[in-house]
Specification:
The chain is of the alpha/beta class. Helices cover 29% and strands 27% of the residues. The protein has six helices and nine strands; from the N terminus they run H-H-E-E-H-E-H-E-H-E-E-H-E-E-E. A hairpin with a 2-residue loop joins strand 1 and strand 2. The longest helix is centred in the N-terminal third of the chain and has 15 residues. The protein binds S-adenosyl-L-homocysteine.
Length: 216
């Protein structure tokens, strides 16, 4: 078995036993996606530590625990269509792709999107479509979505994203100020009413755009 495989199994055991990730499907997806393929070469030795790491363009690949927790909150199944805002490295995108039918992911930095597209191709994840633009306006073309995940910190849930959430849909987003946020889960019921629940404190790079922070 490769050294990376062993390191990955160890990380997933840590997420399960010490950090309270319970969802078997999420743990299995984390066991399958090779995180070392999503980090820069000089950081390869840290690929399976439970930390966020820089990926260039002032952005980061999210901490594995946070990826696992957000994915748990989504309660995905294989029929779902998912909208993700903030592709970044594409690591979270790959986890979503293993658990859902189709993933539309939006990234505002073209170079990051291009790298992520190449990784999806190399890993054979054909159910992912990556687009470059301000994701705070959503992607009305394929709406509504069963699940929406925002992987950058926002002052509030962008209204256009909530509009694109299907009945019985769930959206997970880090809400707060520019430095620190809290995971928030929105659940839309069958009649269209929204419920809001708060989860862990987290630290994300800012969501920049019309429905997020200004670019300064
Ligand atoms: N889940 C990613 C996290 C990347 S960090 C990973 O694990 O690699 C968040 C990403 O959101 C950054 O790449 C940033 O460029 C992107 N982003 C910020 N504002 C955005 C917006 N309005 N639309 C699309 N992407 C955005």
């Amino acid at each position: 078995m490769s050294d990376y495989r062993l390191q990955r199994d160890r990380l997933v055991r840590e997420l399960e036993r010490k950090k309270g990730i319970r969802d078997r499907r999420v743990l299995e997806a984390m066991r399958r996606v090779p995180r070392h393929r999503f980090v820069q070469e000089h950081l390869l030795t840290q690929a399976y530590s439970d930390f966020a790491l820089p990926i260039g363009a002032d952005q980061t690949i999210s901490q594995p625990f946070v990826v696992a927790r957000m994915t748990e909150y989504l309660e995905l199944d294989e029929e779902h269509s998912v909208l993700e805002i903030g592709t970044g490295s594409g690591y979270q995108t790959a986890i979503l792709a293993l658990l859902a039918r189709v993933v539309y992911s939006i990234e505002r930095v073209p170079s990051l999107a291009q790298e992520a597209i190449a990784r999806m191709r190399e890993l054979g994840l054909n159910n992912v479509k990556i687009h470059v633009f301000d994701g705070t306006v959503g992607l009305s073309q394929f709406a509504p979505y069963d699940r929406i995940l925002v992987t950058a910190g926002s002052p509030q849930a962008p209204p256009l994203l909530l509009d694109q959430l299907a009945p019985r849909g769930r959206m997970v987003i880090p809400e707060g100020d520019r430095q620190s946020q809290r995971l928030v889960v929105y659940v839309r019921d069958a009649e269209g009413r929204l419920e809001r629940r708060e989860g862990e404190a987290v630290t994300f790079v800012p969501l920049i755009g019309r429905g997020g922070w200004s670019d300064d």
